[in-house]
UniProtKB/TrEMBL annotation:
This is Myosin motor domain-containing protein. Transmembrane segments: none annotated. Coiled coil: none annotated. Pfam families: Myosin_head (PF00063). Belongs to the TRAFAC class myosin-kinesin ATPase superfamily. Myosin family. It comes from Talaromyces atroroseus. SUPFAM superfamilies: P-loop containing nucleoside triphosphate hydrolases. InterPro entries: Myosin_head_motor_dom-like, P-loop_NTPase. Residues 1-236 form the Myosin motor domain. GO terms for cellular component: cytoplasm; membrane; myosin complex. Keywords: Actin-binding, ATP-binding, Motor protein, Myosin, Nucleotide-binding. GO terms for molecular function: actin filament binding; ATP binding; microfilament motor activity. One of its GO terms (biological process) is actin filament organization.
Amino acid sequence: MLDPRGARQHADELARTLYSLLVTYVIESINQRVCATENSVGNTISIVDFPGFTQSAKSSTLDQLLNNAAVESLYSFAVQSFFLDKADCLESENISVPATSYFDNSDAARGHLKTGNGLLAIIDDQTRRGKTDLQMIHSFKKRFKNKSPTITVGNREANLPGSNFETPSIHVTFTVKHFAGEINYPINGLIEENGETISGDLISLISSTRNDFVRALFGQGVLKKVTHPKDFKAII
């Protein structure tokens, strides 16, 4: 039995799950309908549309971080394409042009996206290994302290008022110096957001549905199910 708060949390989880699976279903359906075979494609035009740099998180720290990382990467690509590559090309032709000033965000881009030990890679790794937010902060410190000029990590412990002893703090943040300014990202709840885990009870409940559309939503390949080793009907 659930109390009112638990019932609300389960209802919110169901709403988030349905929304996520519906978006995935619509996108995949569109892709299947408009997809063309490779030998029938000549030239293509791709459009990248980002919502822009996000100064404050309206609902999700993870969404803010991923959005800003994408914008950071796009800015880095633009700098490389418009300034560095062009300068190398002109230099190879013995053409001299006045130096152009620009903000070099290569450290921030590497800090976010470097394979294996970039910020996003560490978050994914800690999520897969079932670590906590505070354990992830320890990994951040180990990777970035005194090694990155653009990423600084706060302390895991803090002195509570009236106490001389440090205790784990849920208000830990890490700071990223983006090309558009510094942003403090709260660590609390980041692992849970990144996990996108759906309750096994919810999956078991939906599996008994007679609605073909709902069954198709929860049968998509994007949804990975882990079954109990001794009972393949039990979703864990």
